């Protein structure tokens, strides 16, 4: 079996980010290890705890918090030992920037100690030259290893210092852990050995490690074997997806060629079939991406656990290995016992079928059929157009000439299906049922099967011309892509980070987002009365001071200033918090949406059914009512943004629609269809091509509309980690930033269709 990880060196462990907390990004303090083998600071886990459970920030596994609190999680003696080594190299008593001798104050020397030139690896003390010479001559310390301090701090003696480290008993300071109580599986010092473990069989640590190491190594080998299977399954999934795309491109070409000679009256049917093809490919790609994400997530979890166990076994001291042995063994058994996907789920490949009645306006001339794709074995290349295609072609050639023109069967005159059609329909239903059953067997991180989406049991789905989306609560029929490519922008997850800072007194309530400088965002935290600045990687950059007593609601960044609404006022402040001007707004509106114009020198705000635009001096530049005074009813734009084309896009809660208007207030597009799922439209953002991203908080979705307001489909759903999305913004025209109700921010890169 090929090993999936070599034993890490001590230098790699000390120089990598292994000793950094993934929550606070600082060096670990009081490291505690979760059952998933990820280690964090005790204080960070305390802030992360949600009642009686904690969700691991790395593998997203939910673990229960012990009744005694996060302090009861297992202490990571292995990490503690490495931290002691790092701290000893980097720290110490300093005088004028140089380490001081630790023994001089004890023998009547200066209170601060002389300059240290050596270090005793056994005592872990820095020594001056005189104390070092005496240390080598005394009866009790003549066997101690005294080394040059410069070489020690350069890392020359790390391995030797590591061998002389001893884990200290937490109950008896100064006593090293020396024994393992076999019945209690507890590490003991000499004091602990006397009571209450006096009558228990105990082993020295070295002997206990020799007895238990083979079991851990066997479990580790099993996880390595599972990693091989995961890599193979992931590779097969990608190959299946590539074959699907290749065949979809071929079928798309066939559809185009078949439709070229048809009369104009039949072009609508051509668009309908292309829409079916696009919907099927997008749905299949979505399912494939989910399976790939599942496989990659499991691979990362297994690889991280294996790497941790390998580090402990390679670098850990006996006490450290035994203290973690139970947790490691339990985790490795859990991973080893988890069922692994044997291969990609069956995929329905589209096939073009032409109807003989080409001149019959009431007949669908183009139809798609889907054949189940078999997993490839032994490096076979039975892709589209080979074995499966030859069998399909053979079946078409064997069909009667009156029934196979174009590869399609004629429909019965009275609307009923022919026996041959009923058989084909049953075959398609069985294929879909098999596909859903196979998907249900893909394991979760907890080892259980994946539930059916939406919590509903699996049911047979019938394909009658149109292919429905596979996502939960799919949006209604999708419109064609404006550029004619048939492909829509897709999300690629970039990162996720919390917005709660140490000085916050309350949980964040994000009410506004906007771009702020290169690859940075400004967050309006209404609950903590702050404007916080973050990079797209989650690095905290500080705050923009706001006037005392102001709770920022909506925010927009201009060329050299920041505009925000608070209460019934509009503020323009400099980046250092100086108020340049303020304007009173209508008291009849609870909140006022703010947006910066593409030029960066004007700000728009929604006020009582109309939009006001102010320049940098605070003068009212223009004021308009969306749709004009003759429009039906007033509008209440709760969310507002601008597009690169100079249009205003807003969520109208009065008309329950998304409205797009030009700079004069003329409505150029509006959507109020069933794609809103009966929800009030939420935050809106626009990318560099004019696509509109609309948040639907109640159904945990972000849907996408074209520049004219036609619904194109779902962009983000709950499967992308959305839990009550609140506000969004677009950064650099290609990063969609989404804030959740709990104060977390997700960043997605918008991948364009031509990318």
TrEMBL record:
Entry keyword Hydrolase: no
GO cellular component: cytoplasm; nucleoplasm
Alphabetized InterPro entries for the sequence: 6-blade_b-propeller_TolB-like (IPR011042), TRIM45/56/19-like (IPR047153), Znf-RING_euk (IPR027370), Znf_B-box (IPR000315), Znf_RING (IPR001841), Znf_RING/FYVE/PHD (IPR013083), Znf_RING_CS (IPR017907)
Chief location of this protein within or outside the cell: cytoplasm
Basic and acidic residues: compositionally biased ranges: 392-404, 419-447
Pfam families: zf-B_box, zf-RING_UBOX
Cell compartment(s), UniProt: Cytoplasm
Catalytic activity line of the entry: S-ubiquitinyl-[E2 ubiquitin-conjugating enzyme]-L-cysteine + [acceptor protein]-L-lysine = [E2 ubiquitin-conjugating enzyme]-L-cysteine + N(6)-ubiquitinyl-[acceptor protein]-L-lysine
Endoplasmic reticulum recorded as keyword: no
Domain B box-type positions: 164-205
Keywords: Antiviral defense, Autophagy, Coiled coil, Cytoplasm, Immunity, Innate immunity, Metal-binding, Phosphoprotein, Repeat, Transferase, Ubl conjugation, Ubl conjugation pathway, Zinc, Zinc-finger
Metabolic or biological pathway: Protein modification; protein ubiquitination
Basic residues bias locations: 453-469
EC number(s) per entry: 2.3.2.27
Coiled-coil annotated spans: 227-305
The family this protein is said to belong to: Belongs to the TRIM/RBCC family.
The protein, known as: E3 ubiquitin-protein ligase TRIM56
Name of the gene this protein is made from: TRIM56
